[in-house]
Give the backbone structure.
Amino acid sequence: MKIFDAEIQKLSAKAEKARVDLKADIEEQVNVLKQQRDSARKKLDDLRSRSGEAWEEVREGADSAWRELRTSIDRAIKKFE
């Protein structure tokens, strides 16, 4: 989680220094990433509170959310390098 937060923060810092035409794009991407991060965090919290069969279902959803977040962060970093 801390790694994702740090990478999102780096993109936010990049937005502050970016040209006007890129700044809005980067800020929009940062907002999307924050929403995905918050969703993944909620799924992780749900996972911690479950047991048995319900745990397995929530775990699959949490794994998927984290993979999507990682992919989105990687794309954003590559796009704005």
Observations:
- The two ends are 22 Å apart (CA to CA).
- The chain is about 90% helix and 0% strand.
- Helices lie at 2-17, 20-48, 52-79.
- Residues 20-48 form the longest helix (29 residues).
